[in-house]
Design goal:
Length: 164
């Protein structure tokens, strides 16, 4: 079974409320989240940092969008090992950095709020890719992250390729 880490921008885009995401990007996010719920596992952290970010941006009532449905499913299944892999991450003193995050000068300016996703991916023994829709930091830092074994799956690569 495939295991995935999901950046919060994916369910937000799936809700159809992101101006920079066109219809094909929204559909790619919807398809990815539906496939995850039906056939894959999500990786979360033991500290609840990813769930907290989801909760701040999505509704656990599961409506009115696919991203909300996804969050409701994650919330209901966070303790179910058939659907969720829980990994331990270790924050450093500054709170948004983690021992698992690579100590690499090329990543010094990588978004601190996204470091939890990298930490979770690296802490997992499954080497899961991180799903991204429209967050440009993942595109900009994909090579330094790849050097450290972090895989990123771009659901909407045309968002970034036009800027190259």
């Amino acid at each position: 079974m495939t295991v995935l880490v999901v950046d919060t921008n994916v369910p937000i885009v799936a809700n159809g409320r992101t101006p920079q995401a066109g219809p094909s990007c929204v559909l790619a996010c919807i398809d990815a989240l539906d496939d995850l719920r039906l056939h894959q596992k999500i990786v979360l952290d033991n500290l609840g940092r990813i769930l907290d970010e989801y909760r701040n941006n999505l509704s656990a009532r599961g409506q009115p969008g696919v991203g909300h449905v996804f969050f409701k499913w994650v919330w209901q299944n966070q303790g179910n090992t058939a659907h969720c892999e829980m990994v331990e991450i270790h924050p450093r003193s500054n709170g948004e950095d983690y021992e698992e995050f690579p100590d690499d000068p090329e990543l010094a300016r990588f978004d601190r709020s996204d470091r939890k996703f990298v930490a979770v991916a690296l802490a997992s023994g499954s080497q899961p890719p991180i799903l991204n829709a429209v967050d440009s930091d993942w595109w900009v830092y994909q090579e330094p992250l790849r050097k450290h074994g972090v895989k990123i799956e771009f659901l909407c690569p045309s968002q970034f390729e036009k800027d190259c």
